Amino acid sequence: MKARDDSALGRFWADVLGWGVASEGPGVTNLEPKDFAYPDPSAVCIDVLRVPDPKTVKNRVHIDLASASADHQADLVARLQDLGATPADIGQGDVPWTVLADPEGNEFCVLEPRSIYRDTGPIAAVVVDCADPRTMARFWGEATDWIVHEAADDLARLRSAAGIGPYLEFVRTPDVKTGLNRVHLDVRPYPGDDHAAEAARLRALGAADIDIGQGDAPWTVLADPEGNEFCLLTPR
Known about the structure:
- There is one protein chain.
- This protein has 2 domains: 55-183, 2,3-Dihydroxybiphenyl 1,2-Dioxygenase, domain 1 (Roll); 185-236, 2,3-Dihydroxybiphenyl 1,2-Dioxygenase, domain 1 (Roll), CATH 3.10.180.10.
- It has helices spanning 6-17, 70-83, 133-144, 195-205, and strands spanning 2-3, 20-25, 28-32, 46-50, 61-65, 86-87, 98-101, 107-110, 123-130, 147-151, 155-159, 167-172, 185-187, 208-209, 220-223, 229-232.
- The chain is of the alpha+beta class.
- It contains 4 helices and 16 strands.
- This is VOC family protein.
């Protein structure tokens, strides 16, 4: 996530998820579950990066939070608003989930209880708006080694091959991507893998090199088949 104030937004999301907070340097706040040891498919970690520009358009990538019951959903919404979240109207109409925005305006959903998310942890899914869910599922499934659980014209859903942790979902929308995504995915080779070889593999799957002003960075910035930026980090 990009943020004007990475520390404040990091604290918000750490409180939301019950996660720990660390920092790898000025302007970068890292969030992960307490006692988490990478790589572990039980969670998708969050890095908050400080940038000078404010949010101006609806995000194409957002987080859905899981709830265990109607009472839990209501209590969670109330707690999130106490932490600084605000109601958000993105044209959702009368739906059973609640749409909120974090303190920097990033939209996210608190879902009503759904059996599919009963064991995901606090994050039910990372959701990406797109034009073609099937194509996106095919690319990201091969890019991450995650399993495609559903692929239809309007929705595609992936999950770790271990069958744990949150889902990665692609939802068909009519919106057109404008500018850089304020929330984006990062992927990282496993320990011992070759960074250059992994970059070549992703390009062969359909990723493209892009320049977002990253300069001489140790990571590689790519775009998926619909132009969404993502970073290939160095092995850890």
